[in-house]
Amino acid sequence: MERGQHTLKVKEVADLVGVSVRTLHHYDEIGLLIPEETTESGYRIYSEENLETLQQILFFKELGFPLKKIKEIISSPSFDRHEALNLHRKMLVEKRNRLDQMIATVEKTLKHSKGEIQMSNKEKFEGFDFSRNPYEQEARERWGDKAVDKANAKVGKMSKEEKKDLEEAFNSIYRNLAAIRHLSPESEEAQAGIKEWFDFLNNMGDYSLDAFKGLGQMYVDDQRFTKNIDKFGEGLAQFMCETMAAFADKQR
Asked: 78 versus 89: which is more confidently predicted?
């Protein structure tokens, strides 16, 4: 293919979009965004259609979708770009409305703290929405309703004290794993630590070895998970992913 007026090299795409060349290389390597052409000298050439696909990828990414899920969606024979754009618009408008409400709450709180206005307790929490778990739908798609419903039902029946104990047990497991994250994922200590996590999850729900391994992969595929897990120690998400995979494989 001759490089025409409507094709761009990888550096030109990176500058246009505001992503790194390394990111585009990664998208190519995982089959998410394959350039129209790769020259004999190794230059990646992107078409207008590639740019449209990249726009879709970035929309989904902005809404918190992991790269693996984005690839599944846009590679589906039933994927409709126009329909996806309508969905993006709807979700982004919802996100904007919620952020606008939270900004208004912050501004009112600043005035309240200066004594300029009075706020009710209800007003102090306008814009916050904890009624929906952003990961729940994805969990349902991966592992089915049964495991998620079982876990939700169990937590729902707990007292405040029991929920606090559960949170402390959760944090303890993560702290212990963070302390040994420098070890090999297949080491005895790492495997013992990850077994505690496996047992913890199965005490709450019903996680097969495949589901456990898939969950670990999500820890690195989904930056929301990575960010939260790595609060216990940088690199913990990657360590847990590898350790969970090794645990699942050894149990077969």
From this structure: 89
Tokens at 136, concatenated: 């729940």
The pTM (predicted TM-score) of the whole model is: 0.45
CA distance 46 to 36: 5
For 120-160, what is each residue's pLDDT tens digit?
Answer: 777 777 766 554 545 445 545 544 455 566 666 777 777 88
Cβ(216)–Cβ(243) under 8 Å? yes
Contact 24, 44 (CB under 8 A): yes
How far, in whole angstroms, is CA 41 from its chain's centroid? 35
8 φ/ψ angles, rounded to the nearest 5 degrees: -135, 150
Q: Do 192 and 241 form a contact (C-beta atoms < 8 A)?
A: no
Question: Is 78 in a helix, a strand, or coil?
Answer: coil
**Torsion over CA of 5, 11, 14 and 17, rounded to 10 degrees?**
-30
Q: Going edge to edge, which strands form the sheet with 8-9?
A: 8-9, 44-46, 37-38
User: Residue 225: is its pLDDT beyond 70?
Assistant: yes
CA distance 167 to 158: 12
Length of the chain: 252
Q: Count the helix, strand and coil residues of the chain and give each as a percent rounded to the nearest 5.
A: 65, 5, 30
Q: Any idea what the Cα angle at residue 242 is, between residues 163 and 68, rounded to 5°?
A: 85
Nearest Cα neighbor of 207 from 138, 143, 141, 133 is: 143
Residue 103 token pair:
């900004």
What pairs with residue 38 in β-bridges?
A: 44
What values do phi and psi take at 46, rounded to 5?
-110, 140
User: Are 106 and 126 a contacting pair, CB within 8 Å?
Assistant: no
